[in-house]
Amino acid sequence: MRKYFLTYISFILSLSLVADPLIDTNQVSAKIDSLEDVLYNSLSIDLSAPEKIGICNALAELYSGISNEKRVEYASRSLKLAEEINDPGLEIKPLEILGYTYRRLDNYEKSIKYYSKLLEIYKANNDEIEEANTLKEIGYSYFHWSKYIEANTKYEEALEIYKKHQYFEGIAGVLRGIAAILVHWGEYDEALNYNHEALKFWEETGDKKEMALSYNSIGMLYQELDSLRRANEYYHKSLEIFEELGSNWDIVNMTLHIGDIYLQKQFYDKALEYYFRADSIGKQVGNKKLKSITLSNIGEAYNLKGDYIKALDYQQKALKLKEEIGDKKRLTITYTEMGIIYYNVGDYPVALKYLNKGLDIAKEINFKSQINKCYKSLSEVYNNIGNYKKALEYYKLYIEGFEQIYSEKSNRIVAELQTIYQTEKKNKENERLRHNEQLNTAQIGNQQLIIGFVLFILIGSFILSIVFHSRYKQNQKLNIQLTLKNKEIEQQQENLLKLNTELKEANATKDKFFSILAHDLKNPFNSLILLTSLLLEEYDTFTEEERKQFIRQIKDSSENTFSLLQNLLEWASTQTGKTKLMKEKIDLSEILEEIITLLKPTANNKKISIYSNIPGNTFVYADKNMVLTVFLNLVSNAVKFTSNNGKVEIKSIVENQHIEIQVADNGVGISPENMKKLFRLDQKIQTKGTDKETGTGLGLILCKEFVEKNNGKIWAESEEGKGSLFYFSLPKS
What we know:
Layout: H1 2-16, H2 25-40, H3 42-45, H4 49-62, H5 68-84, H6 88-104, H7 108-124, H8 128-144, H9 148-165, H10 168-184, H11 188-205, H12 208-224, H13 228-245, H14 248-264, H15 268-285, H16 288-305, H17 308-325, H18 328-344, H19 348-364, H20 368-384, H21 388-441, H22 447-537, H23 544-575, E1 583-587, H24 588-605, E2 609-613, E3 619-623, H25 624-640, E4 647-654, E5 658-665, H26 672-675, E6 687-688, E7 694-695, H27 698-709, E8 714-719, E9 723-731
Parallel strand pairs: 2-4
Antiparallel strand pairs: 1-3, 4-5, 5-9, 6-7, 8-9
Helix pairs in contact: 1-2, 2-4, 4-5, 4-6, 5-6, 6-7, 7-8, 8-9, 8-10, 9-10, 10-11, 10-12, 11-12, 12-13, 13-14, 14-15, 14-16, 15-16, 16-17, 16-18, 17-18, 18-19, 18-20, 19-20, 20-21, 21-22, 22-23, 23-27, 24-25, 25-27
């Protein structure tokens, strides 16, 4: 009975270990049910420990692609049984499964723990090839854990063993792994050489999966170098193979890469199409790391589209997953992206918090390209909040990082090429001398043999001259490329100096502007003091009508001064970064209704009619308070510079992506000289209203800043004596 039962078990085990991609899920489920039935009824059958281990290993293999948790359960059970009978040979298979599966589960610490146990067994058995294979797997786990130095150490150890045994398949695999680390470190040329060496081997052997992985690696490298056409070409080669093999995990990965290409090309809708396709396929995989990358990419695309609410939502979901799995490389990417989103919506303190978090992690793992991205973003944030010293400091760090990644790398390549050239030249010279020595010392009796040697030397010299000439041309070409790169760096340094000069000029302009404002504030206060003193000292000598006239003048002067102070405070708030941009969907008709209600008493005093031709449900996406300020300044200016019985008209025009607003009056108009000064910080406009109201032009400067912060534009048309027409646009919601 036992004999037949064990024969049945052997048959089931043999089926389970056959890697047949065409077996459907029903067949796999049937095998799993059969083996689990045998395993859980084994007490009555009296199976041996090795037989139980074999069944557990088979079940762990069958659950591949179905449930990683079940794989861990059965592999752990198999390992425990092998340890109980003290058989290291039987520990090998479950250790391999556990190391691989925990890496799939993003638990890199446990993955390395089990691979390290496996490594000790192979060392004890003096099995160097398997030792190297395990070192490679440990390096791969360290790489995914963002511990690149440890990963490189393990890869180098494996490579040394593979070279010793001339095991070319292993060498190719390790070269691709090292190339991935070199890309991360900015060593692009060396990485490309390693990848092509590996690809050449896989193409010769016909290993499709390895070919696809190499195509992917080369595509990533070209993408890093902004050669998007070449990158897309290699990504599609890789995707075609993975679709042929039916590997969903890899299909998702490649689909994300192709989406990234469209993102870099600024085809955001096309990028989102690929990202959502990846998300749909990814649900069948159930991998947290892939899911977090997909969510982060979707968030980045929405950010670039300007849909910041969706962008933030997807990045927060991605952040939660990345924190769970401890993926430092992608954590720094998400923190940086969230910082950029908050910068785009004008919440600068929160933007700085996330950008600094991203920078700290990027420095910790030596993620050079991301460090540079953080420096650039921090420079932009500090520039917008008016901290120009910090902005300049981070911009300098950004330029230095650029030079370190590209310029120093290029110099190193030239030095290496020159060394290779000199070494080859020396070797060829030694070879020629050895030939001459042989000719001088040998006893050659045959004249034809002497002629043959002479011809050999002549042909060799001719070939060498071609090689040297080719090397010279290559070096010459590289020197030209380096000259161009140095010119590019010099141009960036010039831009840096220009930025520094502009910052100094901006500060000087602001100082000058504040001195003008001080003068404009001083005059109305002098008038107030004079009028109130005169009224107080000569009160009894004035008639009732004269007293009312004095009070009216005091009121007008106070209102003008208050308006000036209000604009000044709002403008100062924008310059110090205290004004936060809070964009939302707002109805322009409702905003305008508030403004008209506010200004109606002033307009009625001058018998001016204000007409609103903005229909209800005219929605824009902007900061409500800023739009209120813009309307208040433009409409109050129109009233101020319009004569009695005049009119002010406000209307809107719907464009493709924006709504254009027009504020028109039939007032005094603006002279050509003053038109040139509009919206300029360094110019002073002296114009009085129709009732002698004063103005400084500060309100228009504030309007320009607020409109531009909301991704709009503002401009004006006017003819002196006929009125003015002010336009501004805002994004349509």
